[in-house]
Amino acid sequence: YGLPLEQVTAIIHRQSVIHSLVEFVDGAVMAQLGVPDMRIPIGLAMTYPTRLHNPAPALDLLACGNLNFAEIDEAAFPCFALAKQAARIGGTACAAMNAANEAAVARYLRDEIGFYDIPAAVERALALPVMQNPTLDDILAIDAEARRIAAAL
Fold it and tell me: Hey, what domains does the chain have and what are their CATH numbers?
């Protein structure tokens, strides 16, 4: 969106009803709400400005109840700090972070590694050389290398 990283923040919203918030210069905040189903925000990201029909059920605002938020404790969620680091680095760093995270989470879900091995895999992937203007082949190569790193834990 062309915003400096300092203008992008994240908070915890465990109900997963609000998928994004945008604060405007006048202080007004616009929220994108939906059922806790990532098909909707992912579909919108892929087809914007077009909106496709989605089979997910409609959001029932009356059933939502209160919407709660919390700050992210970076000591408890070290991958959040690593994601911010990848965003600051730019280039292929975000692809490396994402690939290592996906591969490490898959290994964790198969009981092959511990939960705290996930950030270790991401941190190692972020040590890979970074290309600032990568081609698709460069991105696919860094993705594969980051997955190899996570597989080797």
Answer: 5-64 (no CATH), 78-151 (1.10.1740.10)
